[in-house]
Predict the structure.
Amino acid sequence: MAREQFQTLTEPMFYILLALREECCGVDIMEKVSLLSHGRVRIGPGTLYTMLQKFETNKVISQTRFAGRQKWYIVTDTGRKMLKEEVERLRIMLRDAGEE
Amino acid sequence: MNRKYKYVPLYFNYTRSDDFAAFLSNMAKKGWKLVSLSSIMKFERTEAADEVYDVQVFLQNGDLDYYPNQYTEEFADYCLAAGWELVGAFGKWTVFRQIKPDALPIFSNTERIQDICRIERKQHLTTLINYCILFVLHLVIAGMQLRQWHFPWFYGLVVLDGIVIIYDIVYLLLLSHWKKEKERELVEKGTAIFGNGNSKPGFLSLTRIILFVLLITTTIIILMQIKNKIL
């Protein structure tokens, strides 16, 4: 299910998963993505909130703890595999572009 | 007269969320601050201020919710961290006030187009299905009465159902066209405007005016029929 829906990760999806390789509070992901991408990628709060819910429903990420309305998440094994496959796909694309 | 509060009906539909936001900013400039959001918006007299509003459709707020639900509050926490303070939620509407100058856009335009279409389509399809059922029921009753009873207003009800069905079909077709237009605008200009630049409330779309006129006309005809029958 997750595989089909997230076959190719969009840029925001990729960076959200990248940010969640370590446990992180949902609200702080926006800041972390900005840091990881050196300010190039900025994810809006609505996009992030919707994406986290989709990822959690599809077991790509899981909730680790909560305090009040704040929730912490981490990427699951499925998510890590997806991230690895995406990196590999991008690597192949870069290699192919370099060969032209 | 120096009123403390002002009440304005919410006439914007979901496809005009940018117009709605512009209207709220204009009201703030005139010294009216939004204090509560519902089908009738309440504004309080304050100092004139330059405030930026953002109006979004949030699918997880219930159609009949007058207040932010649990999901809306969670969503609002994310928005607050990004520089938007929740002012109110009503139905699928969520209204935010900008509190940081570099606040990030809440949703991307692509997401906004999808969400607006999803909610508008759902609402009009529900009405369409309901009225199709009513249309068949009224038609059956109207057919039966030819032989047994005589209640002419049932024919009127069939016409009323038909008008609503046609209205919903036209609306859904227009919505599909609107979606294509917005997607084209996004590709060509890199951004999309959700509205027609008219920030005044009370604006009714052409389809709504036609529906309103037809419903009033049919109701008058039905009432006249009933009156004639009684007299």
